[in-house]
Amino acid sequence: MADYLIFLAISTSIFALFALGLNLQWGFTGLINFGHVAFMTLGAYTTVLLSLKGVPLLISAVIGGILAALLGLVIGFSTLRLREDYLSIVTIGVGELVRLVVNNQDLPVGDAWVSGAFGVQSYTIPLSTAPNLIVRLIMIGLLTLLGGITLYSLWRWIRSTKKLGSKQEFATHLGVGILFALLTIAIYISGAIALYDYNPKAGLMLSSLLVLALVFWRLQVLVRSPWGRILKAIREDEEIPKALGKNVFWYKLQSLMLGGAIAGIAGAFFAWQLSAIYPDNFQPQLTFDCWIMVILGGSGNNIGTLLGAVIYFAYDSLTREYLDDIFPSLSTEQAGAFRIMIIGLILIVLMVWRPQGILGKKEELTLGK
């Protein structure tokens, strides 16, 4: 059970990071990106191929994020001066283009060139070897610090909602806060035990959670800054910031690049989690899974994005585990289709009942007005 919880924590943190990049682009800036997986693909392959050449993992992941940002720069210069429809069309094409190029191109794997269709295996994964006791205790200390900061931040978030929000908003935030607190405690207990006995997956979990916390913190600062307020103004009506003398194109480009860089870093962790990557690991479905997370939690809300990732992976794991017990007559293909149908039904109900998402603010979002 502890190992499975660690696996879910890694998966959720990676896709929460992936979704934060999309939420910056769509939720805060209004950029429709249906090819977000392209940034993840570029980040994953760059990190893996550089690490096989002997480049340190941290530097490899940073370079992967930079190249993903440069991809956003190329896409932005091509489309952001046009109508938003063109951006959505181009990003779909770019997402598939990157995957197909990787699939059909020979890749420099070590000292040889290997067909991309064969995938890349046997690359270095961070913290794969057991460290000494002192390092393990330091890692447990970092996990403890991260858990403590998370619980304290949740308490402040709920308290501020009680003072400034409505009763309904307070009740929603209280329920979400309790859910996150319970998950934090469960992950902390499982992670601390696994770090002490040392399970390499626990080391990867700690790394992904630390990066997610850092990115989330900096994004919260950014979106509350004047820069973030301009992004929201562009989302609502870009003619207004234009009239105030703001370079709307440049702000859109910054948002697309930063969101792409975050997705590129998520791609590095995704590759490390899989231990072997193939082009088919980066299907367009990943982008639409990411959209589900953002819509469920509430676009334009970073905490909502984290909540959407938690809900999505909780649903995914529960249906994989128990759907066969509930409907034993379903074949494997039928069960997969049924799971997609149910998540679609959930989205339809949510759009009718609460179109802004669970934590989104209806008065703040025009929702395509």
TrEMBL record:
CC terms in the record's Gene Ontology section: plasma membrane
Pfam families: BPD_transp_2
GO molecular function: branched-chain amino acid transmembrane transporter activity
Protein's UniProt keywords contain Cell membrane: yes
Keyword Transmembrane helix: yes
Annotated membrane topology: Multi-pass membrane protein
TM region positions: 6-24, 31-52, 58-79, 86-102, 133-155, 176-196, 202-219, 256-279, 291-315, 336-353
Primary localisation category: membrane
Keyword field: Cell membrane, Membrane, Transmembrane, Transmembrane helix
InterPro entries named among the record's database cross-references: ABC_transp_permease, LivM-like
Location of this chain's protein in the cell: Cell membrane
PANTHER family associated with the record: HIGH-AFFINITY BRANCHED-CHAIN AMINO ACID TRANSPORT PROTEIN BRAE (PTHR30482:SF10), HIGH-AFFINITY BRANCHED-CHAIN AMINO ACID TRANSPORT SYSTEM PERMEASE (PTHR30482)
The protein's name in its UniProt record: Branched-chain amino acid ABC transporter permease
